[in-house]
Amino acid sequence: MLNSKGVEILLKQDKVVVFSGIAGVTFLAWLYMFRMAMGMSESGMDMTKPCVMAWDAWELVLMFIMWSIMMIAMMLPSATPMVLIFSTVNRQRSETESPLIPTGVFVLGYLAAWTAFSALATLAQWGLHEAALLSHTMVISNSFLGGILLLTSGVFQWTPFRDACMARCRSPLGFLLTDWREGNRGALIMGLKHGVYCVGCCWMLMTLSFVLGVMNLLWMAILTAFMLLEKVIPWSRWVSRLSGLALAVWGLWVVAGGIR
Fold first, then answer.
1. pLDDT tens profile 4-58
2. Is the four-CA dihedral 108, 109, 114, 119 of positive or negative sign?
3. What number of CA atoms fall less than 13 Å from residue 217's CA on the CB side?
4. Three-state SS for 140?
5. CA atoms within 13 A on the CB side of 133
6. For the stretch 175-205, what's the b/e string if a residue is b when 16 or more beta carbons lie within 10 angstroms of its beta carbon?
7. What is the pTM of this model?
8. Which of 84, 151, 208, 236 has the fewest CB atoms within 10 Å, i.e. is most exposed?
9. Contact, 19 vs 80, CB < 8 A?
10. DSSP state of 221
């Protein structure tokens, strides 16, 4: 049995390893997105015109991969507090076993939820593409439709459903206390369940990628920081409310411009 000082040393080591792993995976995901964005900007195409080239099956797969990696780049940082607490609780419950494998399985479960969302986002992008509503930069070319997405996203920030999902994301320890399951299978189920809550509160914000550009790295970085802040700052509910109001006003302004 380890003494309290030994457990404390192991907890610090675990945090360093887990945080380094998250940082490394996140960096690689952002590097992939950066290289892809640079490749698009150097393609020489007129990025303002609708893209009308038909997709084949391989292009659909590539879009799914792009969305999946984008979700890793954007959502894994916001899950860091939960993952670190999960690792700590695992270590405290079993001092003699490393929590790294269960923690990795938990992360896989979390990312599985966002991978499922990526599949739906890919289908949505394919539908918009087939309707000739996307430019080469994967931005909706119809201002009225873009305004509706902004408005809907703003209203969604005020809904009880989003509040319920966000409450689970804002309280990592509360989630673990009420939903704890033992073993790697339990870690996978917990990670998947937490990922579903996370998708539930953030999916509408992700649809704004079609308004501001799926490959707009600045927008991705801002949204990533925003979602992390929503989960960690004490007054995050007001941040959600104010952001929803701002999005709704923006959406109404864009819709009004599209009607004219």
1. 665 567 677 878 889 999 999 999 999 999 988 887 766 544 444 445 566 778 8
2. positive
3. 13
4. strand
5. 15
6. bbeeeeeeeeebbbbbbbbbbbbbbbbbbbb
7. 0.88
8. 236
9. yes
10. H
